[in-house]
Amino acid sequence: MTKTKAKTNSSSSSSISSQEEYIDSLRQIKETEDKVQGEIENYRKQIEQEIKNLQLDLKNSIDITKQDGKKMVEQSIEESKNKAFAESEKIISDAKNKSKSISFQLDDQMKKEIMNIIFSGI
Q1: Residue span of the structural domain in which 56 resides
Q2: Is residue 118 part of a domain?
Q3: Calpha distance 91→11 (Å, rounded)
Q4: pTM for the complete prediction?
Q5: Would residue 112 count as lying in a domain?
Q6: Complete DSSP assignment for 34-82
């Protein structure tokens, strides 16, 4: 019987050892899972921050582009005004010069026609 007890103790101790090894393996698996989960969480946070940064950069780029566009439109309007003003000044100047050079001669026939037009309404 002592051999049987020794055999039982030996099996029992190897069974306990196997259970401890199994529990230790489970613990290592859990630690690895926790570590991987932490790494995934850190990577997710990093990606979220990068997305936020990209969104902010995009918003800033849009705002700057809008401002630049407004400036370009305002500049174009101002240039168009200046060009139109210069052209109108040139037209007025040309008209003044032409009016100085045009001589108006009134002959007797024209005088009579003008008088008839003026006095026809009276």
Answers
A1: 2-101
A2: no
A3: 117
A4: 0.49
A5: no
A6: HHHHHHHHHHHHHHHHHHHHHHHHHHHHHHHHHHHHHHHHHHHHHHHHH
Per-residue pLDDT of the chain in tens (122 residues, 90 and over written 9)? 444 444 445 566 778 888 999 999 999 999 999 999 999 999 999 999 999 999 999 999 999 999 999 999 999 999 999 999 999 999 998 888 887 777 667 788 888 888 888 888 76
Gap between the Cα atoms of 95 and 89, Å rounded: 10
Is residue 122 included in any domain, yes or no? no
Total domains in the chain come to 1
CA distance 26 to 29: 5
In a domain, 28, yes or no: yes
